[in-house]
Amino acid sequence: MSHVNSIAPAGPGETPHHTVIVVGGGQAGLSISYYLKQAHIDHLVIEKHTVAHTWRSQRWDAFCLVTPNWQCALPDYPYRGDDPHGFMKKDEIIAYLDGFIAMVDAPVLEHTEVRKVKRLPAGGYSVSTSNGEYTADHVVVASGGYHTPIVPRMAERLPADIVQLQSSHYRNPQALPEGAVLVVGSGQSGSQIAEDLHLAGRKVYLAVGEAPRCARFYRGRDVVDWLADMRYYDMPVEQHPLREGVRDNTNHYATGRDGGRDIDLRRFALEGMELYGRLDDLRDGCLRFAPNLIANLDRADDTYNRINASIDAFIDKHDIDAPPGAPYLPVWRPEGERTSLDLAASGITSIIWCIGFTPDFSWVDAPVFNGRGHPVHERGITLQDGLYFIGLPWLHTWGSGRFSGIARDAAHVVAALRSAVDASAATSASLAA
C-alpha cells in the first residue's frame, strides 16, 4: 500500500477540533482532501478500515473496469498508462489508486468507525468515533451509498449445506464448492459474476432482474466514447428525463473483460446457462420465480437498441464517417416461463446474492433525509449548514459515483466549503474589531 499520512487517535480527555472532518477514505473522501489541502483548510479524513478499502477487499479476482481507462480522472491524477481505451484489472486499479493516495498524502485516521455525527447547539458538529470524540465546523460524508448488502429473508430458510455469499464476498469459481451455482440478480455484478463462473465451466442458474444492458462497441467505437461526445456524461441530474429518479436506476451491464465485450445473457443460455425470472420464494424445497424472464430480457434489449439508435442519430446529425450499424436481434428466446426449480435436483451448492445494497446513514443525526433514507442535497450541499455529501450516484452527473466525475463534484463542494470558511473568518474578524 502507498504511503498514508496516518494521524494518531484522540488521547484521553482531549476533544480535537478540525475545520473539516471527512468521513470516508475512498476516492471521494481523498478527492475532497486534495482540494482542501490546496485551499489550506485544516481537515481530517476518518476511515473505518484503510484508505481505498473497498477496492482492495470487495472485488472478485477477475474484476476489471467497465468504463475505459481514459475515464479515470481523479483530481490532477488522470490515467497515464499506454492503454486509454482498455479496462484496468483489479491490481492495476489498486496501483492507480495507490499513486493517487501518495500524491494527496491526506491526513487520515484509519481503523476508526464514525458512530455519530450530530449538530452542536452553538454550531459545528460533534463526531463520535471508536477512537474518541472530535468536533468540526463542517462535515463531509464521503462513505458512499452502498452500505448494507441486500439479502432477502428467504435466505434464512435455505438448507444449511448451501454456501451463500453476497457479491462483495465472491472471489473466484475455485473458492466455491463443487456443484451448480445460483446467481441472483443480473446487474453489473451479477452478470459479470455469472460470466466468470460460466467461463470457468460451472453450471450456472441466473435469476434475471430488470437491469438494462448496453453494447460495449458500436459502429467502430466504444459506446462510452460515443456517449462522451454526445455530452451525456455532462448532463446534470436536474436535466435528466427522470430527474432525481435516475439515482434509483440499475447500472447497464457490459464488461471490460478481455478487452471489452457485450454481455449477452441469451448467448449464455445457448451455451448452457439456465435463465429464470426474478427469484421470489422458497417453498416445499422448490425455488419460486416470477414469470418475467421474457419481459426482462426484452426490456434489456430495448434499452441496448435505444442507446445505439441515439448514437445513429448523432452520427447522422454530424455527418460522421463510421461503419454501419444494425439493431440487436435476439439469438435465443425462452420457450416459456419456468417458475419453479427443485433445489435438490438442480445440484445447486452455492448461491451468490447480487441484488445490491441499501444506504445506511443512521449515524448522521441531521434533518436532511427523505422518506427512503437518502440525503436531500443540491450537488452535495444540504440545507443543514456545514453538512455535505460526496460520492453518491448521480450526485450531479452520471460520473458522480465513479472515477470520471468525482473531481468535478469534489471541487464544487470544497468551493462551497471555502466560501463558508471565509465568511466565518470575516465575521470573527469583524466581531474582534
From TrEMBL:
<dbReference type="InterPro" id="IPR050982">
    <property type="entry name" value="Auxin_biosynth/cation_transpt"/>
</dbReference>
<protein>
    <recommendedName>
        <fullName>Flavoprotein involved in K+ transport</fullName>
    </recommendedName>
</protein>
<keyword id="KW-0560">Oxidoreductase</keyword>
<dbReference type="InterPro" id="IPR036188">
    <property type="entry name" value="FAD/NAD-bd_sf"/>
</dbReference>
<dbReference type="GO" id="GO:0004497">
    <property type="term" value="F:monooxygenase activity"/>
</dbReference>
<dbReference type="InterPro" id="IPR024000">
    <property type="entry name" value="CHP04046_FMN-dependent"/>
</dbReference>
<dbReference type="Pfam" id="PF13738">
    <property type="entry name" value="Pyr_redox_3"/>
</dbReference>
<dbReference type="GO" id="GO:0050660">
    <property type="term" value="F:flavin adenine dinucleotide binding"/>
</dbReference>
